[in-house]
User: Which sequence fits this backbone?
């Protein structure tokens, strides 16, 4: 079910933090190209990471999320919590599918950023660097922040 509501999170002091909004169906086609010009590889990387890090993932509908700070991320709609194992960071965590998507998006952004840097594409490098930090800012506010940071470390 698609809900086009805007969600606000609050920190422990009750201050409003970053807001999220689900990208409407009619805008989904432009979403991935707004992240990176190599959006097909980016999407393939997300799907590959999703399969690699969790046995819970067997394919899913992915929500596209815009953040009030300009960030963008995706997450698979999965039933219940997700157990994810990252042998690279020795992490074995259980968290929400949104948190899993944050991890996957951050890791894919980081990978694409490294490729842009290696290829000398300064514009793409800057865009991906900015997006990474915008998404990370939201991840730091997320209820599963501790697990997200452990997983991507």
Assistant:
């Amino acid at each position: 079910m698609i809900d086009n509501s805007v969600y606000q999170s609050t920190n422990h002091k009750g201050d409003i933090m970053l807001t999220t909004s689900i990208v409407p169906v009619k805008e989904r086609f432009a979403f991935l190209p707004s992240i990176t010009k190599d959006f097909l590889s980016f999407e393939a990387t997300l799907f590959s990471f999703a399969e690699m890090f969790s046995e819970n993932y067997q394919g899913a509908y992915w929500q596209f999320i815009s953040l009030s700070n300009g960030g963008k991320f995706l997450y698979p709609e999965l039933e219940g919590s997700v157990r994810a194992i990252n042998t690279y960071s020795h992490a074995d965590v259980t968290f929400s599918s949104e948190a899993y998507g944050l991890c996957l998006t951050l890791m894919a952004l980081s990978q694409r950023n490294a490729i842009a840097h290696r290829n000398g594409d300064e514009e793409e490098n800057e865009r991906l660097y900015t997006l990474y930090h915008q998404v990370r800012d939201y991840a730091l506010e997320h209820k599963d922040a501790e697990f997200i940071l452990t997983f991507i470390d």
User: Anything to note?
Assistant: The radius of gyration is 15 Å. Residues 97-118 form the longest helix (22 residues).
